[in-house]
Structure prediction request, 344 residues.
Amino acid sequence: MAKKIAVIMPAWNEEKHISEVIKRIKHVSLKNKLDLEIIVIDDGSADNTSKIAKESKADVVLRHIINLGKGNAARTGCDFAYKEKYNIFILMDSDGQHEPEDIPRFLEALKNTDIVYGYRTSEGKSPFLMSVGNWGLTWLVRIMFGAKIRDTQSGFRTFRRNVYKQLRWESKLYGMETEMIVNAKGLKYKEIPIKTIYLDNYKGTTPIHGIKILIQMIKWKAIQLLGGK
Amino acid sequence: MVLGIQILGILFALAMFYLTFHGFKRNQTSKQGLALWGGIWLIVIILSIFPQIISGVGGKLSVTGTIDFLTLIGFAFFLVLMFYLHQKVNKTENKLEKLVRTIAYKEVDKKEKKK
Prediction:
């Protein structure tokens, strides 16, 4: 049976970028003879994200009637992909910050491992505060959980269906990326470099999110010490 | 207890009782809510008029001042209330997420059936 590959893209008010991203994924699918199926999760957008995703021929468009946060949107998409028996899950952003052309490299790296994380290289500019926050969280994850991941906040990653239940997160917002790493304890992983692209300085993880993630990390560590995670 | 604080306590409880009753009349508070909060405000009025009730209890717990004792009770009460509200909010959030997700999946199922 052919491997079904789900490209899962949470989207919130991405009418400007989503069409282009979907087109590029379809081009990558055709060029590399990959069976990529695009699952867009419109997380209560106030614009035409859903409409444009459908017009751009995304395979599945799920719509939250209200905004529930990135973590919830990604979970909706992954739960759907799991139920529909997709074998490989690729999580990526729908705002053009992840290059669909990197998908074949992720799939190649996944051949002998359970999960592949993308890490952003210093090539490309990112807002100073975000860089500092990212570095801080990455360093804290290493200290608290022993996970030597280079970029804990990068949302571009791929994993196999059989590890989804272990990875499945509770975080509603941006803490999901870190929680996935915490839950991935014991799994084999690889990291591959990806480009740093920032198109909108006002979206994404803010310092407030960073503080919330830190509080969640303390909670997860406490659960881990009590034998929960 | 200082007379001024007693008067303030009575006025505060009366104001809160009025707000609670007003909420009940506007269907924002249930009968049970009115009974519970009305009871609490009534206790505040009684304790404000007769602070010697607390002095006896406070003395047995080695809390010297009536105000100190009331502060401790108030603090403990609000902690319990915060915990209860936290649980309620969490539960409501989880239900909301489940509902939104179910609706999202149903819309996709409908389209699949149309095909």
Notes: The mean pLDDT of chain B is 84. Chain B has two domains: 1-50, 65-115. The helical segments of chain B are 3-25, 31-49, 52-60, 66-114.
